[in-house]
Design brief:
By secondary structure, the chain is an alpha/beta fold. The chain has one domain (5-247): TIM Barrel (Alpha-Beta Barrel). Helix content is 42%, strand content 15%. The protein has 11 helices and 8 strands. It has helices at residues 16-29, 47-54, 80-85, 96-102, 106-118, 131-135, 139-151, 180-198, 200-205, 219-223, 240-247, and strands at 5-9, 37-41, 59-63, 90-93, 122-127, 163-166, 207-211, 230-233. The protein has an 8-stranded parallel barrel with strand order 1-2-3-4-5-6-7-8, surrounded by 6 helices. Helix 3 (80-85) links the parallel strand 3 and strand 4. Helix 1 (16-29) runs parallel beside helix 11 (240-247). The longest helix has 19 residues, at 180-198. Bound molecules: 2-phosphoglycolic acid. Residues 9, 167, 172-173, 211-214, 232-236 line the site of 2-phosphoglycolic acid. 2-phosphoglycolic acid binds at residues 9, 167, 172-173, 211-214, 232-236.
Length: 249
C-alpha cells in the first residue's frame, strides 16, 4: 500500500511572517494525521523560518525549485544543497509554471533533479499537458516524454525517494479539475511507463500525485482512484482550514 502524500505549493505567495503564521496553524490542525505524508513548499526566503516552525512535526518542508549545480555563477538560482541547508527535505521540480513562464525543458528538469538527488532531497517532479495538447489527443505522449526526459539516466536506487505529480496545465489555478476518470487514465499510463523503465516493484511503490484545482470538495473522489496517491495543491493550500480539510480527505 502506498501512503498518500499531500503537498501544498504556496507558489509566490505569503510574506515571511504570513508563512510562519500559516505553518503554525497547520502544525496544530494536522497534528492528528499519521496515515498521510504531508509537505508544504513556501517561497525561498520563508523556507528556513517555516522549517523551524515545523521541525519535529509531521509536516515536511519543500522548496519550489532548485538548481542542479552545488554552487557557482548562476545569478538568481538556489542550489539543491542550499535548499537542504535551509531545512527542506523535499523539492518540487518541473512545475508547469517553471516550464511555461521560465522556459524550463525536460533536460533542464533532469539537471535540477540531479542536484536534488545529490543533496538528498525528495523530489516531486511535475508533468502535464496543455489544453491544446489534450485537444490534439497528445496527452499521453507529452506526459510520457516529460517523465522519460526528466528521469533519463537515473536508476531506481537513485530515484527511490521520487514522487511524480500529474498536473494538467489547463486545470492549474483555473477551477477546472480533471475528472477522476481523466486523471486516473493518465496516472495509470505513467505507472505502466515507470514499470517498463524500472520494473513492477518500483512502479507499484511510486507515488503519483494529482494537481490542478484540488479542493476539499473534490479531493476524496480523486483519491479514490487506483493510481492517484496524493495531491499537489496550489490555491487551496494557502488557507489552513482548506488544506487541513484536504489532508483529512
Ligand atoms: P492549483 O495549483 O491547486 O491552484 O490549481 C496546483 C499546482 O500548481 O500545483
Amino acid at each position: 500500500m502506498r501512503t498518500p502524500f499531500i503537498a501544498g505549493n504556496w507558489k509566490m505567495n505569503r510574506s515571511i511572517g504570513e508563512s510562519i503564521q500559516l505553518a503554525k496553524l497547520l502544525k496544530v490542525k494536522l497534528a492528528d494525521v499519521s496515515q498521510v505524508d504531508i509537505a508544504v513548499c513556501p517561497q525561498f526566503l520563508a523556507l528556513p523560518e517555516v522549517a523551524k516552525v515545523l521541525a519535529g512535526s509531521n509536516i515536511h518542508v519543500g522548496a519550489q525549485n532548485c538548481h542542479g549545480n552545488p554552487s557557482g555563477a548562476f545569478t538568481g538560482e538556489v542550489a539543491a544543497e542550499m535548499v537542504a541547508d535551509a531545512g527542506a527535505t523535499h523539492v518540487i521540480l518541473g512545475h508547469s509554471e517553471r516550464r511555461q513562464i521560465f522556459g524550463e525543458t525536460n533536460q533542464g528538469v533532469r539537471a535540477r533533479l540531479a542536484g536534488a538527488l545529490r543533496a538528498g532531497l525528495h523530489p516531486i517532479v511535475c508533468v502535464g499537458e496543455t489544453l491544446a495538447e489534450r485537444e490534439a489527443g497528445a496527452t499521453i505522449d507529452i506526459v510520457s516524454d516529460q517523465v522519460k526526459g526528466a528521469l533519463e539516466g537515473f536508476d531506481a536506487q537513485a530515484l527511490r525517494h521520487l514522487t511524480l505529480a500529474y498536473e494538467p496545465v489547463w486545470a492549474i489555478g483555473t477551477g477546472k479539475t480533471a475528472s477522476p476518470e481523466q486523471a486516473q487514465e493518465v496516472h495509470a499510463s505513467i505507472r505502466s511507463l515507470i514499470a517498463s523503465l524500472y520494473g513492477q516493484d518500483f512502479a507499484h511503490a511510486l507515488r503519483i500525485q494529482y494537481g490542478g484545482s484540488v479542493k476539499p470538495g473534490n479531493v476524496a473522489e480523486l483519491m479514490a482512484c487506483t493510481d492517484i496517491d496524493g495531491a499537489l495543491v496550489g490555491g487551496a493550500a494557502l488557507d489552513a482550514e482548506s488544506f487541513s480539510n484536504i489532508v483529512h480527505f
